[in-house]
Design brief:
- By secondary structure, this protein is α+β, with helices and mostly antiparallel strands.
- Strand 10 and strand 11 form a beta hairpin.
- Helix 3 runs antiparallel to helix 4.
- The protein is elongated and about 60 Å long.
- The chain starts with a strand and ends in a 7-residue tail after the last helix.
């Protein structure tokens, strides 16, 4: 069981804090001969597998590195166009690392804003007045848990579906936010949280939650 990440979204829908706590490694690196068994295509400024699956490489996986050179978008770190390089038989055999695309800072900002909008839509769709909005979204690989304070700050935790004690963890994160962000004389409301004590105590809380589940009295 694991807690994957934490997001803090202000009442306007802006992402003011994000922590990647644990990222499952699903990268696959192999040496390939020409031609590739996959169809690669550009998608959202990166090169992804559009067709073909084998040896742990799946549709939707992105090209992360070519011959050890990290790929940024459609180009390797040494400036080679990935699709052009892999279309040339003279460059084979070639080592390629495939895996899940890592979200950029801009993508995280956009997704936080989208979730803020979905939360508001969920509140408005409720047949009862005063709905709390989205508290949990569930998939087969993770659960998204959300706790909104009375002032509109949202604390979002992405965790393994089997992880227990997330409700108490969310309130613990709110407590840490109150103690180490709001009480910090250098912190401005609604602005990004940059506080070492907040980071340290949040990471400790995530470790405790993973190992012990719910927080007990006095934790």
């Amino acid at each position: 069981m694991a807690i994957f990440s934490v997001y803090v979204v202000n009442k306007a829908g802006g992402l003011i804090y994000q922590l990647d706590h644990y990222a499952p490694r699903a990268d696959t690196e192999k040496t390939f001969s020409f031609p590739l068994d996959f169809v690669l295509r550009p998608h959202d400024e990166r090169v992804v597998v559009a067709f073909g699956q084998r040896d742990g490489v799946r549709v939707g996986h992105a090209v992360l590195a070519v011959n050890g050179a990290e790929v940024n978008g459609r180009f390797t770190a040494d400036g080679k166009d990935v699709l052009e390089f892999l279309s040339n038989p003279a460059n084979y055999p070639v080592s390629i690392r495939f895996g899940r695309h890592r979200l950029s800072s801009n993508e995280k900002l956009m997704l936080a804003s989208m979730f803020h909008s979905l939360f508001a839509i969920g509140s408005q769709l409720s047949p009862e007045v005063g709905s709390s909005g989205i508290e949990m979204l569930e998939t087969d690989t993770f659960k998204l848990h959300c706790f909104q304070t009375l002032t509109g700050i949202k604390f979002v935790v992405l965790a393994d579906p089997r992880q227990a004690g997330i409700d108490s963890l969310l309130r613990k994160i709110y407590e840490i936010y109150s103690d180490f962000a709001l009480k910090n004389p250098f912190y401005s409301l609604e602005m990004p949280i940059r506080c070492e004590l907040f980071d340290q105590n949040l990471k400790l809380a995530l470790e405790v939650a993973e190992k012990a589940g719910p927080f007990g009295p006095g934790s």
